[in-house]
Design a protein that fits this description.
By secondary structure, this protein is an alpha/beta fold. The chain has helices spanning 15-31, 48-64, 87-96, 112-121, 133-140, 174-185, 214-223, 242-250, and strands at residues 38-43, 67-72, 102-105, 145-146, 168-169, 203-207, 227-232, 235-239. The longest helix has 17 residues, at 15-31. 28% of the residues are buried.
Amino acid sequence: MSATDDLGKGLLLKADPIADTFRDEVKDAITQCTRPPTLVGILGTTSAPSKFYAEFTRKQCEQLGVRFVLKQVGSAENPELADGEGVEEAIVEANEDSDVDGIMVYYPIFGGQQDHYLQQIVSPLKDVEGLNSKFHYNLYHNIRFIDPKTLAPAVPAPTDDTPPSGTVKSILPCTPLGVVKCLEYIGVYNKILPYGDRAYGKTVTVINRSEVVGRPLAALLANDGARVFSVDIDSIQVRLSFSLLHFAHRT
């Protein structure tokens, strides 16, 4: 078979071999904690996908050794209540509970700006989904590490993926990050190249520019050096890393 015969063919990936590495990393980290971390899930609707995702979260937490508490409010708690009723109060309560380490809210609830508002209520210190505007800013400005106490930008140009002393990695949306980990696994990223440039020379097309997956994924790939075409229903954009875009504006 010639090399040209493989052009245009997809590659089917099994997620478990990729995920197992990160599961083991999480389990090892939890053994060093003084107590199991607690994740609170907030379910405010009767949406079947949201209920399925909540149950999936529970099973994953049990396997990893994370304590999971599902807080059902609104129509999820009582069919006579409205969708989303009590979600804001549940978020505030979890923010203020020192025994809660992370918060996950199952969207969509209201949709649009109202869901965006709820995302900003979640404390950035407990936001495990990276939906807070602070993390969005870091993502689109290629700030990879933060001071967990102040959430201030840390070292702007790291040399590897080890957080500098006193910092932690900035939170990223899980689905776009999962796509990047799959690309790393199959060798799209060149480990010989410097950290932050390992997708250099690759051209990637991302179809859809949603704030949940498409746009963050395009930014992640561009920040790692790829040439990214971001395709949506009304336009095609070429995405550059923030550092390159900043350099282009200055020159």
